[in-house]
Amino acid sequence: MSIASKGLEGVVAAETKMSFIDGEKGVLEYVGIAIDDLARNSTFEETVYLLWNKRLPTKGELERFEADLRSRYAMPAGLEKLITSLPKSATPMHMLRTMVSALGMFDPSPDKNDVVSARDKALSILAQTPAIVAGFDRYRRGLSLVEPKPNLTFAQNFLYLLNGEMPTETMARAFDVCMILHADHGLNNSTFTARVVISTLSDMYSALTAAIGSLRGPLHGGANEGVMVMLGEIPSVQAAEQYVLDKLAKKDKIPGFGHRVYKAYDPRATFLKTLAKQLAADTGNQALYEKSHRIEEVMDKAVAAKGIYPNVDFYSATTYHSIGLKLDLFTPMFALSRIGGWAGHVIEQLEGNRLYRPDAEYIGPHDAKYVPIGQR
Ligand code: ACO
Asked: Per residue in 336-353, pLDDT tens?
């Protein structure tokens, strides 16, 4: 019987004051505030302030934080050159991972890990990644890059940089809400990755680069793209049931369902479901929402008893599609938001660091003899 904890399920590997999850009850709080409350009333900028400072800002503090963030929206000129020299066939998550790593080389002191410097770097990365993602997308479409506008919110700025025109209030708010919902989530795989990397006292860029690499996997943030692919494979609402049952019979996983921690409905999915429904109706994407809803009904009957419900990725697919985002930008959207969470965790780790160095259970042979190569 192995003593290894496969997948580290149930292992508590860090302390955090950022987010709290009760997977049995379907509760998520950021610094004690229910996610639903934040999604209804806050903004992404205020949420990041909350996560990094463990309290809500005053009006003046928020204004200063927003102004500081906005003053950093433009990416370094050298990075723009780098982006426009990349293969247009690159996928945006590979591009983003590489460009966040490259940002470190434009920083004259990338290795400074005192908390003030770490926050400063985090703010710049958070501010510049929208220009990086939108800039690459425009470049690969053969369009010129757009200059960021420092009078725009984080959400408005990203959609403006992507489309070259101001988003409607509804679209900007929907995007803002998505950013709030994805910002932090306990010690998920990518956050753990970021904390493991910074625990060697490496640097913010390395920690976030590694986290982006983790996030893109189909078992983690990459699932939102998997959901969209699945919706494309299902020709009609009527066909959804058979599609799902066939997959389950083959023991295939349905993307956007199940979670290591939630054994109840993911509260982010509850909010996103309502948002997806409304946006789909506004943008003529009802069929997409209806297919999603049908999949959920079938899954509910088939596997809800095992604690498998929609997770954050399921309805974010319809939401992002209705906002007008291309499929391969879905996971980068998750990353833009989660940079807030990852950076907050990196700072927490730096504040009370101890090197992560778990053990492995050795299950290979002992007392083996070296056989010279000519005798093998
Ligand atoms: N569809 C069908 N069955 C599922 C699903 C699913 N999406 N997820 C879990 N199950 C079943 C498994 O087949 C297994 O059943 P069994 O006990 O009969 O063998 C049981 O539920 C437990 O599943 P595990 O994979 O062992 O659970 P784990 O906690 O390791 O995995 C994970 C969690 C990776 C999220 C899993 O549910 C999954 O692969 N989901 C699909 C991908 C996805 O949506 N990922 C995004 C998660 S949210 C996020 O990271 C942002």
From this structure: 999 999 999 999 999 999
